[in-house]
Specification:
The complex is a heterodimer of chains A (about 800) and B (about 500). With about 800 residues, chain A is of the alpha/beta class. Chain A contains 30 helices and 18 strands. Chain A is about 45% helix and about 10% strand. In chain A, strand 13 and strand 14 form a beta hairpin. Chain A starts with 16 loop residues before the first helix and ends with a strand. Chain B starts with 6 loop residues before the first helix and ends in a 15-residue tail after the last helix. Chain B is mainly alpha-helical and about 500 residues long. In chain B, about 70% of the residues lie in helices and about 0% in strands. The longest helix of chain B has about 30 residues. Chain B is globular and about 65 Å long. Classes of the chains: A alpha/beta (about 800), B mainly alpha (about 500).
């Protein structure tokens, strides 16, 4: 049964060039409101509100609430409980009230609202979409309204189109562009008809083949007013926000590589046309009048509503809740710098800025007082494009950057029997997975899975192994480039003198079992991978004699007895592995031996500190390591939960106090940065990445249904790129609820990042004036910024528009 | 002494009862798991050493409770106890912090207790009660996240199909009870060998029907595609334990089913069709748990096919081996993102040659093994399917030495297959299943099946290399949608028995 479809015969918006420009703008604006999503193999944190970064936090909260019903703050009851538990108090409320100014709220009213009322359910003041109207007609039953079916169908279609190797038989339309492929496939796919949705293929066929023209025609036929286009299109995309985020990432990466890409427009067209097909098949009076009413309502947007009042209250409560944490941190920092030791340190250990490093650095400094620790982005300034043994290379750097160094790893034991073993394993996997051999496979080898079950249940053979140390090979990197990289890394970490005999570059990784989101626990600065290749590459560069000569010429004198050594911190087990020890001169053997012993002691301390939060008694802290190999463990570690602050300062200002594993620590010495180059780098890259992480945790905590990944026990890996919750529905973004909540309370405290920089306010303003994107984040209050003086006192608070307020 | 075996189910039932009374079950559920496994394994050892034993029935009119410990029941009890222990232990961390954890473990224990009661049953009444009870209990587990509309839909679909299975089984049981005036399974089986009459034929067909309804076979499979709406341990238990109940029923009452060609043909037809269907649709599925579900449909179909051909010992092997395999696959499904991709496809000229090579290999192999199609259709089909599967790997491009390695892996597989088969054949000797006589339907279906399976192998070699004609697109869409069977089922269930609107969190909802 072939469907001969007529080509569309009429033009949309005949001759209206303005409308076309407006449409292009609206599509782009709607698409840019979607934050990108990286696949599971390199699952890095993304700010889910990225598309709203140029909007003030408060306005974004209101807009999201109005358009999608999603929340950006916790429910009122959360603040009530925090208030009752004394996690913030009336002093914080006063400060918050002062900060928001003129909201017409008083402390008494706030306390009253917090103590007595719950916020009202969000009013119906939304943009009208076909899906919403259908849902409301079926009393919210999204199965009866078929909107759930629509989302399932789009999601299933996308997962086949974007599948990275789960299905052996890929769809034949994968070679086509997204919208063209879908448009073609609809001619053959009759699943909608089987569900009772008539006319999808006919609707698609009658609309233009070009996605923007199809969108235009749907908007026109639905009679959506032009000033609502952006809202309407965004609201439609939000229904498939997971796949939209996935496609947005493809556009993002293409743009980073300098290519134009608008694949999200294609997905938007798919979603819009699907909804339009649902619209077209409903010709009943009830639907038509409901649709007209919704359109009319959306045109007369009521201004201040109960929801708006509630939001104003919640915003102040939230600000007060954040203020309490900031005050605690300000007090801790005001204790002043640790006294400097004069003799040469035994070791300098550079860790990733990751909040998990804070715990470990404190443990190492207490186990080994002669050690000095530093913080720097865990890719050590080496933007690698790295692949091991012919696997597809991936960027090993923050997603804001483009990798510029092609490095390949070659396993030493690749040839010979190991190679044959790998091949035999792949043949075995084929036997297991393919259609017909599966039957024989089960009868031949199924019984052996009994032993495998027992072994997995007992957690055998899953001890976290030391990371592999393949030979690294960089193609075409000149000495000048290597020199620039080395200098950039050392200056970036403010390590330009007083080198110890041993300098450890400690990358990090997490070892978990049976965890779809495993890459989310790895180093985000390495693009959701282990930091080992970057650390090893950086160490080898800094040990190179030519590079050291060049560095000396540029004013960085590394003593000949200084050796850089790569290491990896396994954040699940708190083990630190030293890598490439054999390459070190024998003169350093005692240094390495001491380092090993002290690191082992520090690991024990760090585990003991982390144990209680994981529900393990501190006395049995070594059980923490067992979680890494436990296939039934949904909380192998807490990842970056709790992250709340970013401090760019010399370690002396933060050392010796317990920052609870909640602070990103970046080393920064203003004396070594006269031209503010390093400061500019810190504010544009690590600080922004840290804010992405904190806002990812924030979004997943405040509204997991909208910005999180749902229930981990239902996760179903889809196309090897993402997870579904259960059988169908949209791809899920963000973090699972188990990564945020221990069953009794949220382990992550949802608050915006508080940034403390040990620099003069004028210097920071200088940098912000040059970086409008970063300034917008701060001006719109997506994070808070404070200036520290040399004594660790918080001298100024950033007040927006390059203005500073003195902190008393 | 045989009554000791009843400790295996009773231990779990006691834990389930204590969970219902809000008593913590973390330790006791593990203890019950170990006890149950120990008892089952001891019974298996005793049966292997000393032969089958059974207890008299506790009850009236020949109906009641009894334990029948033989190679079949002891093997399956050990299997269920083993998987049960794994699944219960898994749930302790997996659902840690979940408000419903105790309820979950309690229901899990109840299901395990009833399943153990089912396989150890020595009396029809106990068999029927445990069958129905286990099925209802599984439905409760499917509704563990009852705020999810899709979970409600899946549970309702399963509820409807399970009641069909219940009706078939209850009628069959009544027919058997009236024909023999006893509910004692041992007595029924020994009467069945010499008995004939329409009520025996009807009972045989009904038993086959109950097995088909409960094993997610065509066209009643829809529910199993959606059980991932409940936490993973339930999926593991379902796929590894519960769907086997149908196969167990046929094996348990093999003496009743085997003599009747109608029952055997039903199993061959539905089982064979489901095997091909599941294996075919699985090729197109992109989510790991749905792909596993289609694989289960195929594997259960294959197992029932073996039952239909009278290859009972192979079917028993299939149940046990598949249970281990599928439990592991589900419990480790979270690692799927890191798994290796599928093999490369073959270019067109190579594909044409490949089919002839395949057929030649299979033909030679089957002749060498001495399976004659006409009087041994079962052996013909089963050997062909095995050889097709193995020879497929020889044709896949692997690079240098790849084909040699593929041959070596195949040899290992063949050895393992023969060894496992021999072990279970020895086990089955004590069970004394009667042979199934070949009939023309079985022969015809068998030949069709081998042809279809050959087509499947060809398809999988060909598929990854673009086949972009409209005809292929239409075929792909049909297959990827599972021939729309589940969509139609959903549409009807939604119409006949609409679920209440979802109360699961939507954007904006407080957690």
């Amino acid at each position: 049964m072939s469907l001969a479809l007529p080509e569309p015969s009429f033009e949309v918006f005949p001759g209206a060039r303005d409308a076309e420009t407006a449409l292009t703008g609206a599509i782009q604006a709607a698409c840019e409101r979607i934050a990108p999503l990286w696949p599971l193999s390199r699952f890095v944190a993304v700010n889910p509100f990225l598309g709203f970064a140029s909007t003030p936090f408060e306005v974004a909260a209101q807009e999201l609430r109005r358009l999608t019903g999603a929340r950006m703050l916790m429910p009122r009851a959360f603040y009530r409980q925090a208030l009752a538990e004394g996690r913030f108090g009336s002093a914080d409320l006063a400060a918050a009230l002062q900060a928001v100014r003129g909201a017409g709220l008083t402390r008494e009213r706030l306390l009253h609202a917090a103590a007595t009322s719950d916020e009202q359910p969000v009013s119906a003041d939304r943009v009208a979409t076909v899906a919403d109207v259908l849902d409301s007609l079926s009393d919210g039953d999204r199965q009866v309204s078929r909107t759930a079916f629509m989302v399932d169908e789009i999601s299933r279609w996308c997962s086949a189109y974007f599948d990275e190797g789960q299905a052996a038989w890929p769809p034949p339309w994968r070679g086509l562009e997204l919208y063209a492929a879908w448009r073609w496939s609809v001619r053959f796919d009759h699943n909608a008809r089987a569900m009772g949705v008539q006319g999808l293929a006919e609707t698609v066929g009658r609309l233009p083949a070009e996605p923007r023209a199809a969108i235009a025609q749907v908007l026109c036929e639905l009679d959506i007013p032009q000033d609502q286009w952006v809202d309407y299109l965004f609201r439609a995309l939000f229904d498939v926000r997971g796949w939209a985020a996935f496609v947005r990432r493809l556009d993002w990466e293409a743009e980073l590589a300098g290519a134009a890409s608008a694949r999200l427009t294609d997905l938007l067209a798919i979603r819009l046309v699907w909804g339009f097909a649902l619209f077209r098949q409903r010709r009943d009076e009830a639907f038509i009048s409901a649709w007209r009413a919704a359109l009319a309502r959306s045109r007369t947007r009521s201004g201040a509503t109960q929801a708006g009042d509630d939001l104003a209250v919640d915003l102040v409560l939230h600000r007060a809740y954040e203020h309490a944490y900031q005050q605690r941190l300000i007090t801790a920092l005001a204790e002043g710098p640790e006294p400097q030791r004069l003799q040469r340190p035994a070791v300098q250990a550079v860790f990733c800025i990751d909040v998990r490093s804070e715990v470990y650095r404190r443990a190492l400094e207490s186990a080994w007082p002669q050690a000095r620790t530093l913080g720097f982005a865990g890719f050590f300034g080496m933007p690698l494009d790295y692949g091991l043994d012919g696997e597809a290379p991936h960027a090993r750097c923050p997603v804001l950057l483009r990798p510029s160094l092609e490095v390949r790893g070659h396993s030493r034991e690749r040839a010979g029997p190991a190679g044959a073993w790998t091949m035999a394993a792949s043949i075995w996997a084929q036997l297991k997975q393919s259609a017909v051999s599966g039957f024989g496979f089960v009868e031949a080898f199924g019984l052996s899975y009994g032993a495998k079950l027992a072994a997995s249940a007992a957690g055998l053979g899953t001890k976290s192994p030391p990371p592999p140390t393949p030979r690294l090979q960089a193609e075409g990197v000149t000495l000048a480039q290597r020199l620039d990289l080395a200098e950039g890394a050392l200056r970036g970490m403010s390590l330009v003198g007083d080198f110890a005999r041993l300098v450890l570059l400690v990358g990090h990784q997490a070892t978990t079992t049976n965890n779809p989101h495993a890459a989310g626990l790895d180093c985000g600065a390495c693009g959701g991978h282990s930091g080992a290749p970057n650390a090893r590459f950086a160490a080898s560069l800094l040990n190179e004699p030519h590079v050291r000569e060049g560095l000396a010429a540029r004013g960085i004198h590394i003593p000949p007895d200084t050796w850089f050594l790569a290491a990896v911190h396994d954040t699940t087990t708190d083990t630190v592995w030293l890598l490439d020890e054999a390459a070190a001169a024998s003169s350093h053997a005692p240094d390495l031996a001491e380092a090993r012993a002290k690191l082992a002691a520090a690991s024990s301390l760090a585990r003991a500190e982390r144990a209680p939060r994981l529900g393990v008694p501190a006395a049995a802290a070594d059980q923490v390591s067992a979680r890494s190999g436990d296939w039934s463990q949904v909380r192998p570690e807490w990842g970056l939960a709790g992250a709340a602050a970013f401090i760019a300062a010399p370690r002396a200002l933060t050392a010796g106090r317990d920052l609870e594993g909640r602070a990103f620590l970046h080393s920064y010495d203003r004396a070594a940065d006269p031209d503010l180059k390093v400061l500019e780098l810190i504010l544009t890259a690590p600080m922004v990445v840290a804010s992405w992480i904190s806002l990812q945790y924030h979004g997943s905590t405040v509204d997991n249904a909208a910005f999180g990944a749902g229930d981990k026990t239902l996760h179903n890996v889809c196309g090897r790129v993402g997870v579904l919750e259960g059988n169908g529905g949209d791809l899920r973004v963000g973090l699972p609820i188990q990564s945020l909540h221990d069953g009794r309370r949220f382990i992550h405290e949802p608050m915006r990042l508080s940034v403390f920089v040990a620099a003069a306010p004028e210097a920071i303003s200088d940098v912000l004036a040059r970086q409008p994107g970063v300034r917008a984040l701060l001006d719109n209050r997506w994070l808070f910024l404070f200036a520290l003086d040399d004594q660790g006192r918080t001298s100024h608070r950033y007040a927006g528009a390059l203005q500073w307020e003195a902190v008393s | 002494m045989t009554w000791i075996a009843s400790l295996a189910p009773l231990a779990y039932l006691a834990v389930a009862a204590s969970a219902a009374l809000e008593i913590p079950v973390r330790r006791t559920s593990l203890a019950a798991g170990w006890l149950s496994l120990g008892v089952s394994a001891a019974v298996l050892a005793a049966v292997l050493a000393g032969g089958a034993v059974s207890t008299p029935t506790l009850g009236a009119s020949g109906l009641g409770f009894a334990i029948r410990a033989d190679a079949l029941s002891a093997t399956l009890a050990t299997l269920i106890a083993f998987i049960g222990l794994i699944v219960v232990a898994y749930s302790h961390n997996y659902l840690s912090g979940d408000a419903g954890q105790r309820r979950f473990v309690g229901q899990l224990c109840l299901a395990l207790g009833l399943l153990l009661g089912l396989v150890l049953a020595g009396n029809l009444l106990q068999l029927v009660l445990c069958w129905i009870g286990a099925s209802l209990c599984v439905n409760r587990l499917l509704l563990f996240r009852a705020d999810r509309q899709a979970a409600v839909l899946a549970a309702r679909k399963r509820f409807l199909v399970s009641r069909l299975a219940d009706i078939a089984l209850v009628i069959a049981a009544i027919l058997l009870w009236r024909a023999t005036a006893t509910g004692d399974i041992g007595a029924i089986l020994s009467t069945a060998k010499a008995a004939s009459g329409p009520e025996w034929g009807a009972a045989a067909v009904l038993i086959a029907g109950a097995a088909i309804f409960s094993s997610a076979q065509l066209p009643f499979h829809g529910w199993i595609l959606e059980v991932m709406e409940t936490p993973t341990p339930v999926s593991a238990l379902l796929h590894a334990g519960v769907v086997n109940a149908g196969g167990f029923l046929v094996l348990r009452l093999g003496e009743v089913v085997a003599p009747h060609a109608g029952a055997a043909d039903l199993l061959i037809l539905v089982g064979g069709a489901s095997a091909v269907f599941g294996a075919l649709v699985m090729l197109t599925q992109t989510s790991v748990k749905v792909a596993l579900a289609y694989s289960t449909i195929a594997q259960m179909g294959f197992m029932l096919l073996e039952c239909g051909f009278g290859a009972y010992s192979l079917a028993l092997l299939h149940i046990v081996a598949h249970a281990f395999y599928k439990a592991h696959a589900f419990l480790s499904a979270g690692g799927a993102a890191a798994a290796a991709g599928p093999a490369e496809g073959m270019r067109a000229p190579a594909r044409a040659v490949a089919v002839w090579i395949l057929l030649a290999c299979v033909g030679l192999g089957v002749v060498a093994l001495g399976a004659r199609t006409a009087d041994q259709p079962g052996a013909f089909v089963l050997w062909s399917v095995l050889l097709l599967g193995l020879s497929r790997t020889w044709l896949q491009p692997h690079g240098r030495w790849g084909s040699v390695l593929a041959l070596a892996v195949s040899a290992v597989a063949l050895g393992a297959y023969v060894a496992a088969h021999a072990a279970f054949a020895r086990l089955a000797v004590t069970l004394g299943w009667p042979p199934v006589a070949p009939n023309p339907v079985a022969v015809a279906v068998g030949i069709c099946l081998v042809a279809l399976m050959t087509g499947l192998v060809w398809l999988q070699l060909a598929a990854p290399v673009g086949m972009a004609s409209p005809a292929w697109a239409r075929t792909y869409a049909l297959v990827a949608n599972g021939f729309h069977l589940n969509t139609v089922a959903n549409r009807w269930v939604l119409r006949l028995w609409p679920a209440p609107p979802s109360t699961a969190p939507q954007p904006g909802a407080a957690i």
